[in-house]
Design a protein that fits this description.
The complex is a heterodimer of chains A (322) and B (233). By secondary structure, chain A is an alpha/beta fold. In chain A, 42% of the residues lie in helices and 18% in strands. Chain A is built from 15 helices and 13 strands. Classes of the chains: A alpha/beta (322), B mainly alpha (233). Chains A and B meet through α1, α7, β8 and α12 of A and α3, α8, α9 and α10 of B.
Amino acid sequence: MIQARLLSVLLCWMSPIVFEYQGEYQDEYQDTHHFKGEYQDEYQDTHHFTIITHHPAHAAANGLNAAYSDNEGPIHIAVASNFNAPMKAITTAFQASTGYQIRTSFGSSGKLLAQTMSGAPFMVFFSADQDKPAALEKSGLIVPGTRFTYAVGGLTLWSANPTLIDAQASVLKEGRFNKLALANPRVAPYGTAALEVLQFLGLEERTRSKWVQGENIAQTFQFVSTGNADIGFVALSQIIVDGNIRQGSFWQVPPGSHRPINQDVVLLRRGATNLAARALLEFVQSEEAISIIESHGYGHPSAGKSGNPLKPTPYIQAAATP
Amino acid sequence: MSFSNEDIGAIWLTLRLATTVTLLLLVIGTPIGWWLARTQSWWKGPVAAIVALPLVLPPTVIGFYLLLAMGPNGPIGAITLALGLGTLPFTFWGLVIASVFYSMPFVVQPIQNAIESLGDRPLEVAATLRAGPWDRFFTVVLPLAKPGFITAAVLGFAHTVGEFGVVLMIGGNIPGETRVVSVQIYDHVEALEYTQAHSLALTMVVFSFLVLLALQIFQRKFGQQGMVYGVRG
Protein backbone atom coordinates (compact mmCIF):
# COMPACT_ATOMS: atom_id res chain seq x y z
CA MET A 1 0.00 0.00 0.00
CA ILE A 2 2.71 2.42 1.02
CA GLN A 3 4.70 1.42 -2.00
CA ALA A 4 1.74 2.09 -4.26
CA ARG A 5 1.25 5.49 -2.70
CA LEU A 6 4.89 6.44 -2.96
CA LEU A 7 4.79 5.45 -6.58
CA SER A 8 1.68 7.48 -7.28
CA VAL A 9 3.12 10.51 -5.51
CA LEU A 10 6.26 10.16 -7.59
CA LEU A 11 4.25 9.91 -10.77
CA CYS A 12 2.14 12.94 -9.93
CA TRP A 13 5.28 14.84 -9.16
CA MET A 14 7.02 13.91 -12.37
CA SER A 15 4.25 14.49 -14.85
CA PRO A 16 3.42 18.03 -15.75
CA ILE A 17 -0.10 18.97 -16.61
CA VAL A 18 -0.69 18.28 -20.24
CA PHE A 19 -3.04 20.45 -22.18
CA GLU A 20 -3.98 19.47 -25.64
CA TYR A 21 -4.98 21.89 -28.26
CA GLN A 22 -7.02 20.76 -31.17
CA GLY A 23 -6.37 22.75 -34.29
CA GLU A 24 -6.94 21.96 -37.91
CA TYR A 25 -4.81 21.98 -40.95
CA GLN A 26 -6.23 24.95 -42.69
CA ASP A 27 -3.63 25.68 -45.29
CA GLU A 28 -1.64 22.73 -46.41
CA TYR A 29 -0.50 24.48 -49.50
CA GLN A 30 1.20 27.06 -47.35
CA ASP A 31 3.09 24.33 -45.52
CA THR A 32 4.48 22.91 -48.71
CA HIS A 33 5.37 26.31 -49.99
CA HIS A 34 7.08 27.16 -46.76
CA PHE A 35 9.10 23.98 -46.97
CA LYS A 36 10.41 24.77 -50.43
CA GLY A 37 11.45 28.26 -49.43
CA GLU A 38 13.17 27.17 -46.27
CA TYR A 39 15.41 24.54 -47.78
CA GLN A 40 16.11 25.95 -51.19
CA ASP A 41 19.63 27.12 -50.34
CA GLU A 42 20.52 23.82 -48.92
CA TYR A 43 19.26 22.03 -51.98
CA GLN A 44 21.46 24.17 -54.18
CA ASP A 45 24.50 23.66 -52.00
CA THR A 46 24.35 19.93 -51.84
CA HIS A 47 22.56 19.01 -55.06
CA HIS A 48 20.67 16.33 -53.24
CA PHE A 49 17.01 15.73 -52.84
CA THR A 50 17.41 13.94 -49.54
CA ILE A 51 17.85 17.09 -47.56
CA ILE A 52 17.28 15.58 -44.18
CA THR A 53 20.29 13.32 -44.12
CA HIS A 54 22.69 16.04 -45.24
CA HIS A 55 21.93 18.71 -42.73
CA PRO A 56 24.18 18.22 -39.69
CA ALA A 57 21.40 18.86 -37.19
CA HIS A 58 19.09 16.62 -39.15
CA ALA A 59 21.64 13.87 -39.33
CA ALA A 60 21.96 14.00 -35.57
CA ALA A 61 18.24 14.00 -34.98
CA ASN A 62 17.37 11.58 -37.71
CA GLY A 63 18.66 8.39 -36.22
CA LEU A 64 17.31 9.22 -32.79
CA ASN A 65 13.85 10.39 -33.58
CA ALA A 66 12.76 9.15 -36.93
CA ALA A 67 9.20 9.19 -35.68
CA TYR A 68 9.37 12.87 -34.83
CA SER A 69 11.10 14.21 -37.88
CA ASP A 70 8.05 13.91 -40.09
CA ASN A 71 5.79 16.88 -40.15
CA GLU A 72 2.53 15.07 -39.55
CA GLY A 73 0.41 15.56 -36.46
CA PRO A 74 0.74 17.88 -33.50
CA ILE A 75 4.07 18.99 -32.09
CA HIS A 76 4.80 18.67 -28.40
CA ILE A 77 6.31 21.62 -26.56
CA ALA A 78 7.37 22.20 -22.95
CA VAL A 79 6.49 25.49 -21.25
CA ALA A 80 7.39 26.88 -17.83
CA SER A 81 4.18 27.08 -15.83
CA ASN A 82 4.53 30.78 -15.07
CA PHE A 83 3.99 31.39 -18.79
CA ASN A 84 0.78 29.37 -18.85
CA ALA A 85 -1.74 32.10 -19.69
CA PRO A 86 0.20 33.93 -22.43
CA MET A 87 1.24 30.62 -23.98
CA LYS A 88 -2.35 29.51 -24.31
CA ALA A 89 -3.16 32.77 -26.10
CA ILE A 90 -0.08 32.46 -28.30
CA THR A 91 -0.72 28.87 -29.33
CA THR A 92 -4.36 29.67 -30.07
CA ALA A 93 -3.32 32.54 -32.35
CA PHE A 94 -0.54 30.45 -33.89
CA GLN A 95 -2.80 27.52 -34.64
CA ALA A 96 -5.43 29.80 -36.11
CA SER A 97 -2.98 31.49 -38.45
CA THR A 98 -0.84 28.50 -39.49
CA GLY A 99 -3.04 25.45 -39.02
CA TYR A 100 -0.32 23.62 -37.13
CA GLN A 101 -1.33 21.73 -34.01
CA ILE A 102 0.46 22.10 -30.69
CA ARG A 103 0.35 20.03 -27.54
CA THR A 104 1.69 21.87 -24.52
CA SER A 105 3.12 20.42 -21.31
CA PHE A 106 3.32 22.92 -18.49
CA GLY A 107 5.64 22.31 -15.57
CA SER A 108 8.47 23.81 -13.59
CA SER A 109 11.53 24.50 -15.73
CA GLY A 110 13.65 22.19 -13.58
CA LYS A 111 11.35 19.23 -14.07
CA LEU A 112 10.87 19.93 -17.75
CA LEU A 113 14.64 20.07 -18.13
CA ALA A 114 15.07 16.75 -16.36
CA GLN A 115 12.39 15.22 -18.54
CA THR A 116 13.93 16.61 -21.71
CA MET A 117 17.28 15.15 -20.74
CA SER A 118 15.58 11.82 -20.14
CA GLY A 119 14.09 11.74 -23.61
CA ALA A 120 10.72 13.49 -23.27
CA PRO A 121 9.21 14.10 -26.71
CA PHE A 122 9.45 17.89 -26.60
CA MET A 123 10.53 19.85 -29.66
CA VAL A 124 10.56 23.34 -28.16
CA PHE A 125 11.33 24.33 -24.56
CA PHE A 126 10.13 27.63 -23.14
CA SER A 127 12.06 27.98 -19.88
CA ALA A 128 11.45 30.41 -17.02
CA ASP A 129 15.12 31.30 -16.93
CA GLN A 130 18.31 31.27 -18.99
CA ASP A 131 20.27 28.65 -17.04
CA LYS A 132 18.28 25.63 -18.11
CA PRO A 133 18.30 26.34 -21.84
CA ALA A 134 22.03 27.03 -21.46
CA ALA A 135 22.46 23.67 -19.74
CA LEU A 136 20.66 21.96 -22.61
CA GLU A 137 22.85 23.81 -25.07
CA LYS A 138 25.94 22.58 -23.25
CA SER A 139 24.68 19.02 -23.44
CA GLY A 140 24.21 19.35 -27.18
CA LEU A 141 20.48 18.77 -26.95
CA ILE A 142 19.42 21.88 -28.81
CA VAL A 143 19.79 23.06 -32.38
CA PRO A 144 22.73 25.51 -32.23
CA GLY A 145 21.85 29.16 -32.58
CA THR A 146 18.18 28.80 -31.68
CA ARG A 147 18.32 30.13 -28.11
CA PHE A 148 16.79 33.55 -27.53
CA THR A 149 14.86 35.52 -24.89
CA TYR A 150 11.14 35.46 -25.56
CA ALA A 151 9.91 37.29 -22.47
CA VAL A 152 11.19 39.23 -19.49
CA GLY A 153 9.42 38.66 -16.19
CA GLY A 154 8.31 41.53 -13.97
CA LEU A 155 8.45 41.35 -10.18
CA THR A 156 6.10 43.14 -7.83
CA LEU A 157 5.32 43.25 -4.12
CA TRP A 158 1.67 42.40 -3.65
CA SER A 159 -0.89 42.06 -0.90
CA ALA A 160 -4.46 40.79 -1.09
CA ASN A 161 -5.30 43.57 1.36
CA PRO A 162 -6.13 46.71 -0.68
CA THR A 163 -4.74 49.13 1.90
CA LEU A 164 -1.64 47.36 3.15
CA ILE A 165 1.01 48.42 0.64
CA ASP A 166 1.54 52.14 0.04
CA ALA A 167 3.64 53.90 -2.58
CA GLN A 168 6.78 53.67 -0.41
CA ALA A 169 6.24 50.04 0.51
CA SER A 170 6.64 51.13 4.12
CA VAL A 171 4.94 47.97 5.31
CA LEU A 172 7.94 46.03 4.00
CA LYS A 173 10.58 48.46 5.20
CA GLU A 174 9.09 48.79 8.68
CA GLY A 175 8.39 45.07 9.02
CA ARG A 176 4.66 45.48 9.68
CA PHE A 177 3.63 42.11 8.27
CA ASN A 178 3.22 38.54 9.55
CA LYS A 179 4.92 36.72 6.69
CA LEU A 180 6.71 37.68 3.51
CA ALA A 181 6.18 35.18 0.70
CA LEU A 182 8.76 34.72 -1.98
CA ALA A 183 9.63 31.95 -4.39
CA ASN A 184 12.52 29.75 -3.28
CA PRO A 185 15.63 31.58 -4.57
CA ARG A 186 17.46 28.27 -5.00
CA VAL A 187 15.03 26.91 -7.54
CA ALA A 188 12.90 29.72 -8.93
CA PRO A 189 14.07 32.71 -11.01
CA TYR A 190 11.45 34.98 -9.42
CA GLY A 191 12.81 33.96 -6.04
CA THR A 192 16.34 34.89 -7.05
CA ALA A 193 15.05 38.27 -8.20
CA ALA A 194 13.09 38.77 -4.96
CA LEU A 195 16.22 38.05 -2.95
CA GLU A 196 18.17 40.57 -5.02
CA VAL A 197 15.52 43.21 -4.35
CA LEU A 198 15.71 42.54 -0.59
CA GLN A 199 19.49 42.84 -0.76
CA PHE A 200 19.14 46.04 -2.78
CA LEU A 201 16.88 47.46 -0.08
CA GLY A 202 19.16 46.16 2.69
CA LEU A 203 16.30 44.12 4.15
CA GLU A 204 17.51 40.56 3.62
CA GLU A 205 18.62 39.79 7.18
CA ARG A 206 15.87 41.78 8.86
CA THR A 207 13.08 40.00 7.00
CA ARG A 208 14.54 36.50 6.78
CA SER A 209 12.77 35.16 9.87
CA LYS A 210 9.44 36.04 8.28
CA TRP A 211 10.06 34.43 4.90
CA VAL A 212 7.82 31.73 3.62
CA GLN A 213 9.00 30.20 0.40
CA GLY A 214 6.90 28.80 -2.40
CA GLU A 215 8.39 26.13 -4.62
CA ASN A 216 7.42 28.24 -7.58
CA ILE A 217 5.88 31.61 -8.21
CA ALA A 218 2.38 30.12 -8.49
CA GLN A 219 2.56 28.72 -4.98
CA THR A 220 4.02 31.98 -3.69
CA PHE A 221 1.05 33.79 -5.13
CA GLN A 222 -1.26 31.29 -3.45
CA PHE A 223 0.26 32.04 -0.03
CA VAL A 224 -0.52 35.73 -0.47
CA SER A 225 -3.90 35.42 -2.18
CA THR A 226 -5.25 33.15 0.58
CA GLY A 227 -4.22 35.74 3.15
CA ASN A 228 -1.78 33.43 4.90
CA ALA A 229 1.09 35.76 4.10
CA ASP A 230 0.37 39.50 4.35
CA ILE A 231 2.70 40.40 1.49
CA GLY A 232 4.80 38.62 -1.09
CA PHE A 233 6.96 39.06 -4.14
CA VAL A 234 4.90 37.74 -7.02
CA ALA A 235 5.10 37.97 -10.80
CA LEU A 236 3.58 41.05 -12.34
CA SER A 237 1.80 38.71 -14.74
CA GLN A 238 -0.04 37.12 -11.83
CA ILE A 239 -1.76 40.28 -10.66
CA ILE A 240 -2.98 41.19 -14.14
CA VAL A 241 -6.26 39.53 -15.02
CA ASP A 242 -7.71 40.30 -18.44
CA GLY A 243 -5.76 43.52 -18.58
CA ASN A 244 -6.84 44.73 -15.14
CA ILE A 245 -4.96 44.80 -11.87
CA ARG A 246 -6.22 42.23 -9.42
CA GLN A 247 -7.82 43.46 -6.20
CA GLY A 248 -5.30 44.22 -3.48
CA SER A 249 -2.35 46.58 -3.26
CA PHE A 250 1.04 46.41 -4.90
CA TRP A 251 4.38 48.10 -5.22
CA GLN A 252 6.57 47.95 -8.30
CA VAL A 253 10.10 47.07 -7.26
CA PRO A 254 12.65 49.78 -8.17
CA PRO A 255 14.09 49.50 -11.67
CA GLY A 256 17.54 47.97 -11.58
CA SER A 257 17.06 46.44 -8.13
CA HIS A 258 17.40 42.97 -9.58
CA ARG A 259 18.85 41.36 -12.67
CA PRO A 260 16.31 40.97 -15.47
CA ILE A 261 14.26 37.77 -15.32
CA ASN A 262 15.02 36.73 -18.87
CA GLN A 263 13.11 33.71 -20.07
CA ASP A 264 14.75 31.81 -22.92
CA VAL A 265 13.36 29.42 -25.47
CA VAL A 266 15.27 26.80 -27.45
CA LEU A 267 14.60 24.49 -30.36
CA LEU A 268 15.41 20.99 -29.17
CA ARG A 269 17.13 18.50 -31.45
CA ARG A 270 13.94 16.49 -31.65
CA GLY A 271 12.32 19.43 -33.44
CA ALA A 272 15.26 20.19 -35.72
CA THR A 273 13.49 19.11 -38.90
CA ASN A 274 10.03 20.08 -37.85
CA LEU A 275 8.48 22.95 -39.75
CA ALA A 276 5.80 23.67 -37.17
CA ALA A 277 8.41 23.98 -34.42
CA ARG A 278 10.45 26.45 -36.43
CA ALA A 279 7.32 28.36 -37.41
CA LEU A 280 6.34 28.62 -33.73
CA LEU A 281 9.73 30.09 -32.85
CA GLU A 282 9.28 32.68 -35.59
CA PHE A 283 5.73 33.40 -34.46
CA VAL A 284 6.83 34.02 -30.87
CA GLN A 285 8.91 36.93 -32.14
CA SER A 286 6.10 38.42 -34.21
CA GLU A 287 4.29 41.66 -33.38
CA GLU A 288 1.16 39.70 -32.60
CA ALA A 289 2.88 37.41 -30.10
CA ILE A 290 4.82 40.25 -28.48
CA SER A 291 1.62 42.17 -27.87
CA ILE A 292 0.12 39.07 -26.23
CA ILE A 293 3.23 38.66 -24.09
CA GLU A 294 3.17 42.29 -23.00
CA SER A 295 -0.55 42.28 -22.29
CA HIS A 296 0.12 39.55 -19.74
CA GLY A 297 2.56 41.68 -17.79
CA TYR A 298 5.81 40.50 -19.31
CA GLY A 299 8.43 42.68 -20.94
CA HIS A 300 10.13 41.84 -24.19
CA PRO A 301 13.80 42.31 -25.08
CA SER A 302 12.78 44.09 -28.27
CA ALA A 303 11.58 46.94 -26.07
CA GLY A 304 15.26 47.85 -25.86
CA LYS A 305 15.38 48.24 -22.10
CA SER A 306 17.45 45.21 -21.33
CA GLY A 307 18.61 46.69 -18.02
CA ASN A 308 15.05 47.30 -16.90
CA PRO A 309 12.70 44.38 -17.20
CA LEU A 310 9.87 46.34 -15.71
CA LYS A 311 8.90 48.34 -18.72
CA PRO A 312 5.56 49.62 -17.48
CA THR A 313 2.73 48.86 -19.84
CA PRO A 314 0.16 51.65 -20.22
CA TYR A 315 -2.50 50.22 -17.95
CA ILE A 316 0.02 49.75 -15.18
CA GLN A 317 0.89 53.42 -15.28
CA ALA A 318 -2.83 54.24 -15.29
CA ALA A 319 -3.48 52.18 -12.20
CA ALA A 320 -1.63 54.29 -9.68
CA THR A 321 -0.17 52.52 -6.71
CA PRO A 322 -2.66 52.93 -3.89
CA MET B 1 27.41 10.17 0.43
CA SER B 2 27.41 13.25 2.56
CA PHE B 3 24.80 15.48 4.07
CA SER B 4 24.89 19.24 4.40
CA ASN B 5 23.81 20.87 7.63
CA GLU B 6 20.56 21.72 5.96
CA ASP B 7 20.00 18.10 5.04
CA ILE B 8 20.66 16.98 8.61
CA GLY B 9 18.33 19.70 9.89
CA ALA B 10 15.64 18.41 7.55
CA ILE B 11 16.17 14.83 8.76
CA TRP B 12 15.86 15.83 12.44
CA LEU B 13 12.79 17.90 11.74
CA THR B 14 11.19 15.01 9.87
CA LEU B 15 11.86 12.60 12.73
CA ARG B 16 10.50 15.10 15.26
CA LEU B 17 7.38 15.64 13.16
CA ALA B 18 6.78 11.93 12.60
CA THR B 19 7.26 11.10 16.30
CA THR B 20 4.89 13.85 17.44
CA VAL B 21 2.28 12.85 14.88
CA THR B 22 2.53 9.14 15.72
CA LEU B 23 2.07 9.74 19.44
CA LEU B 24 -0.88 12.04 18.85
CA LEU B 25 -2.41 9.60 16.40
CA LEU B 26 -2.18 6.69 18.83
CA VAL B 27 -4.05 8.79 21.38
CA ILE B 28 -6.67 10.05 18.91
CA GLY B 29 -6.84 6.99 16.69
CA THR B 30 -7.39 4.42 19.46
CA PRO B 31 -10.85 5.63 20.57
CA ILE B 32 -11.87 6.13 16.93
CA GLY B 33 -10.65 2.65 16.00
CA TRP B 34 -12.32 1.18 19.09
CA TRP B 35 -15.60 2.89 18.32
CA LEU B 36 -15.51 1.85 14.64
CA ALA B 37 -14.78 -1.74 15.65
CA ARG B 38 -17.56 -2.04 18.24
CA THR B 39 -20.35 0.27 17.15
CA GLN B 40 -23.59 -0.76 15.45
CA SER B 41 -24.43 2.88 14.80
CA TRP B 42 -25.58 4.19 11.45
CA TRP B 43 -22.71 6.69 11.72
CA LYS B 44 -20.08 4.00 11.35
CA GLY B 45 -20.13 4.22 7.55
CA PRO B 46 -19.79 8.01 7.24
CA VAL B 47 -17.12 8.21 9.96
CA ALA B 48 -15.10 5.38 8.40
CA ALA B 49 -15.36 7.10 5.04
CA ILE B 50 -14.11 10.41 6.45
CA VAL B 51 -11.19 8.67 8.16
CA ALA B 52 -10.31 6.98 4.85
CA LEU B 53 -10.59 10.16 2.73
CA PRO B 54 -6.85 10.97 2.75
CA LEU B 55 -6.21 7.61 1.10
CA VAL B 56 -7.93 8.65 -2.07
CA LEU B 57 -7.63 12.43 -2.14
CA PRO B 58 -4.53 13.86 -3.80
CA PRO B 59 -2.29 15.50 -1.18
CA THR B 60 -2.54 18.75 -3.11
CA VAL B 61 -6.30 18.80 -2.57
CA ILE B 62 -5.89 18.23 1.17
CA GLY B 63 -3.08 20.79 1.31
CA PHE B 64 -5.03 23.37 -0.62
CA TYR B 65 -8.12 23.09 1.58
CA LEU B 66 -6.02 23.09 4.73
CA LEU B 67 -4.30 26.26 3.50
CA LEU B 68 -7.69 27.90 3.00
CA ALA B 69 -9.22 26.52 6.21
CA MET B 70 -6.23 27.40 8.39
CA GLY B 71 -5.80 30.82 6.80
CA PRO B 72 -7.07 34.02 8.42
CA ASN B 73 -10.29 33.79 6.40
CA GLY B 74 -10.93 30.09 7.06
CA PRO B 75 -12.89 28.41 9.88
CA ILE B 76 -9.83 26.86 11.58
CA GLY B 77 -7.92 30.11 11.17
CA ALA B 78 -10.78 32.04 12.78
CA ILE B 79 -10.65 29.72 15.80
CA THR B 80 -6.88 29.82 16.22
CA LEU B 81 -6.88 33.61 15.82
CA ALA B 82 -9.65 33.95 18.42
CA LEU B 83 -7.58 31.81 20.80
CA GLY B 84 -4.61 34.12 20.22
CA LEU B 85 -2.55 31.37 18.58
CA GLY B 86 -2.11 33.09 15.23
CA THR B 87 -2.60 31.07 12.06
CA LEU B 88 -1.26 27.56 11.55
CA PRO B 89 0.22 27.47 8.02
CA PHE B 90 4.02 27.82 7.92
CA THR B 91 4.38 26.46 11.46
CA PHE B 92 5.52 23.13 12.87
CA TRP B 93 2.19 22.64 14.64
CA GLY B 94 0.35 23.39 11.44
CA LEU B 95 2.24 20.50 9.86
CA VAL B 96 1.48 18.30 12.86
CA ILE B 97 -2.25 18.91 12.56
CA ALA B 98 -2.22 18.41 8.80
CA SER B 99 -0.24 15.18 9.19
CA VAL B 100 -2.54 13.86 11.90
CA PHE B 101 -5.40 14.18 9.46
CA TYR B 102 -3.37 12.87 6.54
CA SER B 103 -1.96 9.79 8.29
CA MET B 104 -5.11 9.01 10.27
CA PRO B 105 -6.30 6.01 8.19
CA PHE B 106 -2.93 4.33 8.51
CA VAL B 107 -3.30 4.31 12.29
CA VAL B 108 -7.05 3.92 12.77
CA GLN B 109 -7.59 1.01 10.42
CA PRO B 110 -5.01 -1.44 11.84
CA ILE B 111 -6.30 -0.66 15.35
CA GLN B 112 -9.89 -1.12 14.23
CA ASN B 113 -9.05 -4.41 12.50
CA ALA B 114 -7.16 -5.72 15.51
CA ILE B 115 -10.02 -4.94 17.88
CA GLU B 116 -12.62 -6.36 15.49
CA SER B 117 -10.67 -9.59 15.19
CA LEU B 118 -10.76 -10.04 18.98
CA GLY B 119 -14.50 -10.53 18.86
CA ASP B 120 -16.89 -10.07 21.79
CA ARG B 121 -15.89 -13.12 23.74
CA PRO B 122 -12.75 -11.98 25.60
CA LEU B 123 -14.52 -8.80 26.65
CA GLU B 124 -17.59 -10.65 27.84
CA VAL B 125 -15.46 -13.07 29.79
CA ALA B 126 -13.57 -10.18 31.38
CA ALA B 127 -16.87 -8.50 32.23
CA THR B 128 -18.11 -11.62 34.01
CA LEU B 129 -14.93 -11.42 36.09
CA ARG B 130 -16.00 -7.90 37.08
CA ALA B 131 -13.49 -6.02 35.00
CA GLY B 132 -14.69 -2.45 34.35
CA PRO B 133 -14.53 -0.86 30.90
CA TRP B 134 -11.10 0.75 31.48
CA ASP B 135 -9.76 -2.37 33.09
CA ARG B 136 -10.98 -4.43 30.15
CA PHE B 137 -9.32 -2.07 27.73
CA PHE B 138 -5.92 -2.01 29.43
CA THR B 139 -5.71 -5.61 30.58
CA VAL B 140 -7.53 -7.41 27.77
CA VAL B 141 -7.79 -5.35 24.58
CA LEU B 142 -4.39 -3.68 24.65
CA PRO B 143 -2.31 -6.86 25.17
CA LEU B 144 -4.34 -8.90 22.68
CA ALA B 145 -4.43 -6.18 20.03
CA LYS B 146 -0.80 -5.17 20.54
CA PRO B 147 0.33 -6.23 17.06
CA GLY B 148 -2.35 -4.00 15.58
CA PHE B 149 -1.15 -1.05 17.62
CA ILE B 150 2.45 -1.64 16.63
CA THR B 151 1.47 -1.89 12.98
CA ALA B 152 -0.50 1.35 13.37
CA ALA B 153 2.42 3.18 14.95
CA VAL B 154 4.92 2.00 12.34
CA LEU B 155 2.68 2.85 9.40
CA GLY B 156 1.69 6.22 10.86
CA PHE B 157 5.33 7.10 11.44
CA ALA B 158 6.53 5.92 8.02
CA HIS B 159 3.68 7.60 6.21
CA THR B 160 4.36 10.92 7.93
CA VAL B 161 8.04 10.67 7.00
CA GLY B 162 7.03 10.14 3.39
CA GLU B 163 4.54 13.00 3.29
CA PHE B 164 5.21 15.58 0.62
CA GLY B 165 2.25 17.19 -1.10
CA VAL B 166 0.51 18.54 1.99
CA VAL B 167 3.74 19.90 3.47
CA LEU B 168 4.54 21.59 0.20
CA MET B 169 1.17 23.33 0.18
CA ILE B 170 1.13 24.65 3.75
CA GLY B 171 4.77 24.50 4.86
CA GLY B 172 6.43 27.50 3.28
CA ASN B 173 9.83 25.77 3.33
CA ILE B 174 11.12 27.26 6.59
CA PRO B 175 14.40 25.65 7.80
CA GLY B 176 13.97 23.88 11.15
CA GLU B 177 10.24 24.53 11.12
CA THR B 178 8.63 23.10 8.01
CA ARG B 179 11.44 22.06 5.65
CA VAL B 180 11.19 18.27 5.91
CA VAL B 181 13.25 15.70 4.02
CA SER B 182 10.82 15.21 1.14
CA VAL B 183 10.74 18.95 0.47
CA GLN B 184 14.52 19.14 0.72
CA ILE B 185 14.83 16.36 -1.88
CA TYR B 186 12.41 18.19 -4.13
CA ASP B 187 14.50 21.36 -3.83
CA HIS B 188 17.69 19.51 -4.65
CA VAL B 189 16.10 18.06 -7.77
CA GLU B 190 14.68 21.40 -8.84
CA ALA B 191 18.05 23.06 -8.31
CA LEU B 192 19.65 20.30 -10.42
CA GLU B 193 21.71 19.19 -7.40
CA TYR B 194 21.23 15.56 -8.28
CA THR B 195 24.08 14.24 -6.10
CA GLN B 196 22.59 15.70 -2.92
CA ALA B 197 19.15 14.60 -4.04
CA HIS B 198 20.47 11.06 -4.47
CA SER B 199 21.98 10.94 -0.98
CA LEU B 200 18.75 11.96 0.70
CA ALA B 201 16.48 10.01 -1.62
CA LEU B 202 18.48 6.81 -1.22
CA THR B 203 18.36 7.26 2.56
CA MET B 204 14.59 7.50 2.31
CA VAL B 205 14.35 4.39 0.16
CA VAL B 206 16.55 2.37 2.53
CA PHE B 207 14.67 3.66 5.57
CA SER B 208 11.26 2.87 4.09
CA PHE B 209 12.39 -0.57 2.99
CA LEU B 210 13.82 -1.42 6.41
CA VAL B 211 10.67 -0.21 8.17
CA LEU B 212 8.41 -2.31 5.97
CA LEU B 213 10.75 -5.30 6.18
CA ALA B 214 10.77 -5.06 9.97
CA LEU B 215 6.99 -4.90 9.92
CA GLN B 216 6.77 -8.03 7.78
CA ILE B 217 9.13 -9.95 10.06
CA PHE B 218 7.25 -8.76 13.11
CA GLN B 219 3.92 -9.82 11.66
CA ARG B 220 5.19 -13.24 10.71
CA LYS B 221 6.54 -13.72 14.20
CA PHE B 222 3.20 -12.85 15.76
CA GLY B 223 1.26 -14.81 13.20
CA GLN B 224 -0.58 -11.71 12.16
CA GLN B 225 -0.62 -12.24 8.43
CA GLY B 226 -2.22 -9.48 6.50
CA MET B 227 -2.35 -6.92 9.28
CA VAL B 228 -0.84 -4.39 6.95
CA TYR B 229 -3.22 -1.62 6.27
CA GLY B 230 -6.84 -2.39 5.73
CA VAL B 231 -6.87 -6.09 4.98
CA ARG B 232 -7.41 -8.69 7.62
CA GLY B 233 -5.85 -12.11 7.26
